[in-house]
């Protein structure tokens, strides 16, 4: 890279929009000079949406209607302009690059077309990321943009874990296999957690739980490489999520279409946007809301939704510990993973058989801003709660991608 | 004489026990199949009891064995939509049998009854709750088999085993986590398609493929056929094959691939079950061909060496049931010879004798 530049990174969650500006010279500075996070974007809940800003001379929470991600991006870009922070390059976390994109890519009209082809692979994420890219094109015309993909980190998943046993013709025609998601988050944890834990990267087995406010997944990591991920061809499968169903009997979809005459489009919408925590609890898709209402008679399904969420998380942790032949560390990350002690406490119950022993007090008082060791001193498995930094990984990808290219 | 009917579309499997000795018949379900049954059984006045296996009793049938009555038939009718091919055959047979042999005792054997005790946390899918109210949930499958494995394991450990993972290894492998006789988890769901891949079934996959296939113009019945009959071992091996073919087919790359996949799926599911039981006293494998399955059983057990599972070296041959674990193993490992007909017959007889006791 010839000169210093500021890289703005957008990170679309299913119900959030994160944004960070990293100064970058020889390396990407891990400390952003500006950050924003839009919460409850397009969600149905009892709390209003808002954006939390942190920048030069700015630290504020703005409560504002955020009906979709494009509006949230417009709001954030306007605040960046007002703050006086100069942006030289814009990166986007792109959830699903399918078979087309294996590494980060600069966005030109041809690439944009290809990205649009990937929209249906992750119907909750890819279209909203595309809408944020378009918003940037319109607000900052001519600004260089690039995309970094969540699916890249999972390229190391072995064939026995990624193969779906359906006829070969179908696997080939639809490129139907497990891709895995949240790869940028897992890449960050895989690179940084070993040093925090004081464990060597080589021969280190970890199960990492990326628990977001919208989407969540679990990853089995050995020696820094992804070995399996709870999400699949799409981000629909795996854990129960805010509005996504997670694992279901494949026959359930067929059954609903045939027996109840549900149209395929309506059914897919139901499984992605009306299921998960929202489907069971009925009143909110937000785990924080649901936990607050556990025990209230009028919200009797809140308890069930919470228990189902934990149950499925426990099962995935157990299955990946078995798949790895035991683990050295269990890591909780992203919004829910870092901030919710109750989820961690419940998830770790029953995992003593695998050598997991949680320090309840340390778990209660874990920091939301930095890594906390929350296992007991005698626990065979070290348990960590730590924030993830997908945006930093995206910024690094951008710096590599544009080395020598960006001059203004 | 006792008779058992077990639907296996497009066939009906029928086992006749004369003086305790079984004879198995396979009846193709086409025109005149009732005549084929009659040819086997006639209007034999010696027919004491007839058992009908119901593959999916949903939330309607809560007893593993129950006496068929007109009310019970209504419940079976309500279950037909859950497994149309199998359950409609059970219904047709039961209606036919009750008319044909009015003097016999007619019993319903439900393969999902054992799992009606799963907690709502386990039974529910994370889909809109209204659908759960309509009766959509994880009903499990092969409950009669898993309950039998539990009982066998209890007997072998003299009642010491409280937490057991039961594993049926076959063309349709399934697992169950059982604590004190109560199921806590299982691999199958609304149907037996969920879970581990089978000889023709895909097992757990991303259901998005169904929408892609539909958008590509395939009919529902074609999608059903692909996922239930042309996937699993058949898809990986490129031809129909059995679990025995896969376990013994290490020299054939496609079969070796299928075995790796299957082994991985089972290991993961055992891990999931361990998390639900909070540990385990015994892992029990059952199979119709336990000797053939021994290499797979030992490989799976070896994957849990990190938990202190240790198997004996001298397990090459022997009679069944057999304990494979060493004396110091943290978990006891058993293998069992499973014979579905004997298990079904024993379940019928157990019901009959306890009913007899109640009467007297």
Total strands of chain B: 12
- The assigned structural class of chain B equals alpha/beta
CATH class of the largest domain in chain B: Alpha Beta
Number of helices of chain A: 15
List SSEs of chain A in N-to-C order.
EEEEEHEEHHEHHHEEEHHHHHEHHHEEH
Major β-sheet strand ordering of chain A: 5-4-3-2-1-6-8-7
Tell me about the biggest sheet of chain B? Answer: 6 strands, mixed
Q: What is the count of helical runs of chain B? A: 13
How far apart lie the N and C ends of chain A? 12 Å
Query: What's the CATH topology label of the largest domain in chain A?
Result: Nucleotidyltransferase, domain 5
User: How many domains would you count in the coordinates of chain B?
Assistant: 2
CATH class of the largest domain in chain A: Alpha Beta
What's the N-to-C terminus distance of chain B? 23 Å
The backbone outline of chain B, from C-alpha atoms, is globular
Round the mean pLDDT of chain B to the nearest integer and report it: 93
Structure in a nutshell:
The complex is a heterodimer of chains A (408) and B (360). Chain A has helices at 69-83, 109-117, 126-139, 159-162, 168-173, 183-197, 250-259, 264-273, 276-281, 287-293, 301-324, 334-339, 341-348, 360-364, 390-401, and strands at residues 5-12, 17-24, 34-39, 50-55, 58-63, 89-94, 105-106, 145-149, 205-211, 216-222, 225-229, 329-333, 372-373, 382-385.
Report on this model:
The complex is a heterodimer of chains A (408) and B (360). With 408 residues, chain A is of the alpha/beta class. Chain A has two domains: 5-156, ATPase, nucleotide binding domain (Nucleotidyltransferase, domain 5); 200-385, ATPase, nucleotide binding domain (Nucleotidyltransferase, domain 5, 2-Layer Sandwich). Helices cover 37% and strands 19% of the residues of chain A. Chain A has helices at 69-83, 109-117, 126-139, 159-162, 168-173, 183-197, 250-259, 264-273, 276-281, 287-293, 301-324, 334-339, 341-348, 360-364, 390-401; strands spanning 5-12, 17-24, 34-39, 50-55, 58-63, 89-94, 105-106, 145-149, 205-211, 216-222, 225-229, 329-333, 372-373, 382-385. Chain A has an eight-stranded mixed sheet, sandwiched between helices. In chain A, α6 crosses α15. The longest helix of chain A has 24 residues, at 301-324. The mean pLDDT of chain A is 93. Chain B folds into two domains: 2-110, 2-Layer Sandwich (Nucleotidyltransferase, domain 5), CATH 3.30.420; 143-340, ATPase, nucleotide binding domain (Nucleotidyltransferase, domain 5, 2-Layer Sandwich). Chain B is built from 13 helices and twelve strands. Chain B has 360 residues and is an alpha/beta fold. In chain B, 52% of the residues are buried. In chain B, α2 (70-79) packs antiparallel against α3. In chain B, a hairpin with a 2-residue loop joins β8 and β9 (182-186). Helices cover 41% and strands 19% of the residues of chain B. The model of chain B has no long low-confidence stretch (mean pLDDT 93). Chain B starts with a strand and ends with a helix. Chains A and B meet through α4, α5, α7, α8 and α9 of A and α4, α7, α8, α9 and α11 of B.
């Amino acid at each position: 890279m010839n000169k210093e530049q500021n890289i703005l990174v957008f990170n679309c969650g299913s119900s959030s929009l994160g944004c960070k500006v990293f100064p970058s010279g020889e390396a990407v500075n891990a400390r952003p000079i500006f950050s924003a996070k839009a919460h409850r974007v397009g969600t149905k809940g009892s709390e209003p949406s808002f954006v939390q800003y942190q920048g030069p001379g700015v630290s504020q929470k703005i409560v504002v209607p955020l009906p979709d991600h494009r509006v949230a991006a417009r709001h954030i870009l306007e605040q960046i302009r007002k703050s006086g922070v100069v942006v030289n390059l814009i990166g986007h976390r792109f959830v699903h690059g399918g078979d087309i994109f294996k590494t980060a890519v600069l966005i030109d009209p041809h690439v944009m077309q290809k990205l649009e082809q990937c929209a249906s692979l992750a119907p909750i994420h890819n279209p909203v990321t595309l809408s944020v890219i378009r918003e940037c094109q319109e607000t900052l015309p001519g600004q260089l943009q690039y995309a970094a993909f969540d699916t890249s980190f999972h390229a190391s998943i072995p064939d026995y874990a990624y193969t779906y046993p359906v006829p070969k013709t179908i696997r080939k025609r639809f490129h139907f296999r497990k891709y895995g998601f949240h790869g940028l988050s897992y890449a960050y944890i895989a690179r940084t957690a070993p040093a925090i834990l004081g464990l060597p990267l080589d021969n280190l087995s970890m199960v990492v739980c990326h628990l977001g406010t919208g989407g969540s997944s679990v990853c089995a990591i050995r020696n820094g490489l992804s070995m399996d991920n709870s999400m699949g061809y799409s981000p629909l499968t795996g854990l129960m999520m805010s509005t996504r169903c997670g694992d279901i009997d494949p026959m359930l979809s067929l059954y609903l279409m045939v027996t109840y005459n549900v149209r395929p489009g309506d059914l897919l919408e139901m499984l992605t946007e009306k299921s998960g925590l929202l489907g069971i609890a009925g009143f909110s898709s937000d785990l924080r809301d649901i936990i607050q209402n556990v025990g209230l008679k009028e919200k009797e399904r809140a308890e069930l939704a919470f228990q189902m969420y934990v149950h499925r998380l426990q099962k995935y942790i157990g299955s990946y510990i078995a798949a790895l032949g035991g683990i050295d560390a269990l890591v909780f990350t992203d919004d829910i993973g870092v901030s919710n002690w109750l989820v961690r406490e419940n998830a770790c119950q029953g995992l003593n058989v695998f050598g997991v022993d949680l320090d309840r007090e340390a778990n209660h008082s874990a920091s939301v801003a930095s890594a906390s060791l929350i296992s007991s001193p005698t626990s065979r498995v070290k348990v960590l709660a730590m924030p993830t930094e997908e945006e930093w990984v995206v910024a690094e990808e951008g710096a590599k991608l544009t080395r020598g290219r960006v001059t203004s | 004489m006792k008779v058992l009917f077990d639907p296996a579309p497009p066939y009906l499997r029928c086992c006749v026990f004369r003086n305790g000795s079984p004879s198995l018949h396979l009846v193709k379900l086409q025109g005149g199949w009732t005549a084929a049954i009659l040819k086997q059984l006639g209007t034999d006045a010696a027919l004491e009891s007839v058992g009908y296996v119901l593959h999916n009793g949903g939330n309607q049938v809560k007893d593993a064995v129950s006496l068929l009555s007109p009310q019970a038939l209504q419940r079976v009718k309500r279950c037909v939509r859950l497994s149309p091919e199998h359950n409609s055959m059970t219904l047709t047979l039961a209606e036919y049998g009750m008319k044909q042999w009015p003097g016999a005792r007619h019993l319903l054997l439900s393969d999902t009854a054992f799992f009606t005790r799963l907690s709502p946390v386990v039974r529910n899918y994370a889909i809109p709750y209204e659908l759960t109210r309509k009766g959509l949930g994880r009903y499990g499958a092969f409950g009669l088999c898993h309950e039998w494995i539990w009982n066998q394991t209890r007997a072998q450990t003299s009642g010491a085993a409280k937490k057991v993972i039961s594993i049926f290894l076959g063309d349709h492998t399934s697992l169950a986590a059982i604590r004190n006789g109560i199921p806590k988890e299982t691999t199958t769901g609304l149907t037996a398609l969920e879970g581990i891949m089978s000889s023709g079934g895909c097992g757990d996959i991303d259901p998005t493929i169904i929408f892609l296939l539909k958008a590509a113009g395939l009919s529902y019945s074609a999608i059903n056929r692909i996922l239930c009959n042309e996937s699993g071992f058949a898809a990986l091996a490129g031809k129909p094959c059995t679990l025995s073919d896969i376990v013994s087919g290490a020299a054939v790359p496609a079969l070796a691939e299928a075995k790796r996949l299957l082994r991985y799926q089972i290991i993961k599911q055992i891990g999931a079950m361990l998390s639900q039981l909070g540990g385990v006293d015994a892992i029990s494998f059952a199979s119709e061909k336990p000797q053939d399955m021994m290499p797979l059983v030992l490989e799976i057990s070896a994957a849990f060496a990190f938990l202190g599972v240790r198997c004996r070296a001298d397990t090459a041959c022997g009679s069944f049931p057999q304990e494979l674990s060493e004396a110091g193993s943290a978990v006891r490992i058993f293998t069992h010879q499973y014979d579905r007909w004997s298990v079904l017959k024993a379940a019928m007889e157990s019901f009959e004798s306890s009913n007899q006791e109640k009467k007297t």
